[in-house]
Specification:
about 300 residues; single chain; alpha+beta; 10-stranded mixed sheet; globular; 10 helices
Amino acid sequence: MKRNIENKKFNKFLYLVPFVLLAGVTYYYYNTKKENSSENSYLSSKRELESIPEQQETGREIEIPFEKDDLYCITRYSISESLPIYIEREYPEEDRKEFIVLRPIEADYDYMDFYDLVSKNKDFLGYEETIVHNYGITPLRTRTILRNLCHNMKKNSGVIHVGIWHRKGNTSNEQLLGMLTISSEEGNEEEVKKGKPAGSYASYWIGDPKQTGVSGVVTISLRALVDHMIYLGRLNRLNLVISEKNKGSLRVAEKLGLSCFHVKDKIPADLWVYYNVERETSFLFTISAKKWKKKHWDFDYKQSK
């Protein structure tokens, strides 16, 4: 009798097996189809990018002559209300041009480029564990993180995430170099009351120039994006928090003319952990929009629009 009851229970279990298998196959098919769809949209986006013009038609042009790799170079870009920003580098002695392109991130189109870049630069980006964890584990995780960033950018006009891309000459093929973010903290009244300096905070990360073959892009990229945000009236003060160990970023802040303070003197101890740096050995660099325009703009802002 006991054996018959056990047989009946076993038969009921066998009865459910086809339904479980069907559910598993359906789930697998749906996710595979979804992944294929994302890959197709990613490829179609790359085809669309080929038609983007390489120079902006409107805006105030900035021209900066300087020496790069012992070559005379002229850098040009336009300050305007629109994105992307095209930064042209011209090398007259070699009769060649290259472009640094700053454009908003599109998660479903760009995630494979971000994953590939971080995967190839894990050792170089080892100092930034968060970047490797977010973008260098799996493509799906990378896409999810980028989607969250895009969602945050749509909700807050004071936040912008752009990819830093490189183009050789007049070609339309783009190579991802890194990411640049400016986020506003001016609306966070509670932290400002506790002593956190108000303003917009910039952060960025870049791949190894030896791997990408492109160097010297951070300073000009940050300058161009800050110009854009100030032109739109979305940035009143720029802040950078930099560890004394990060010599490259210290040079960037110095070139852009930011004032320097010790983090421990400007940011309360209960807030410093937010920056993921050592409070005792880090610096706060800051500059107001008014001083920025006086230093970097050679035209009257009120007459520029």
